[in-house]
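Troubleshooting: if your tokenizer reports a length mismatch, compare your output against this known-good record of 358 residues.
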Amino acid sequence: MHTHFRIRFAIAVAGALAACEHTAPFRPGAYDPSGVLTPGDPARLTYNPGQDLMPAWSSTGAEIVYTAQRLDRADGDYCLAFLPAAGGAISRYVCRTGAADDSLNVFDETALSADSQIAYVRASNTRAVFRLGPDAEQLVVAPVADPNDVRVLQRLPFTAPWGTTFDGLSHLTWLGRNRLAAVGERVTYPQCRGCPPDTVRTGIETVIIDFTTAVVGLSRFQNGDSASSLAADRSGDTLHFTRDGDSRVYRHVFSSSRTDTIYDFGAAGIARDVSVSRSRLAAVVGGDVSYFVDSVLGASQPDRGGPLYLMILGSPPTQLGNAAWRFRRPQVAPDGKHLVVAAWNVAPTSDLWLFQLP
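Known-good structure output:
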């Protein structure tokens, strides 16, 4: 009797499977997550226990590249992480070494060009030597397909041909093929009694890096002093920038050598971290930032983030996201319809968030 029951059950199951029309059984394969874990606006893109910082878009808008702290590695390196624009699984990491070593290596300040080049700043600090700053730091450019196949454009710190010394470079932006703009910075490491050392990066002026030939050329433009952030338009002829301690966003047109003000955030506070695409401008304004001039160190602008603003050029700005969060480095997508940004909410580390734009 039990045997008849098993036969009838097997026949019934076979009939049910035939009715579902499964043409092939499931097989092993890659089933990586796609899209964001929790949809929404904004949508959280990353869940790294370490820091996720400085996002940048590929020229097509299909991919986001950012600096990810690798706490799964013993050396805790800050590597480049490549993420689909819609969120999901990281497609690849690029680190200085394939395995953990005795140095802390940092890749940051990433910018991707239309011709598949990636520019970034890489730094290293040997753990056996106690230093507040890096032992070695370089501005490099490489193919996106192999970011470790670098051409070194500039070692840091350096003294420019016009006599100004820069400790660092930040806010890299492409001005066309083999031409970059960057904020040349003073970097200090102030300490107070009982406090951990801090890093304060203060813009000195805008530096133009031209590497169309074997000899890298450095130049600047009038009125580009005290720059704190940069964003070029698609043509590379127009550069938007902010200044230390200033609530205004400026615009410089290279072809006409003209500089003007396009918006003043006024009482909202110091503007920085500007990004522009398709007539949409994003910036971080006010918040946990200050500006002062020290008799020894000179001008300093400590910055731990602030509120995020968006405006369509020619219209008043609106505030995005939670006003209590601290945002840094917003980047408007090439299509002008999305924005990715690093944010600290209640956690001590930052994550990336994706906004849909009007």
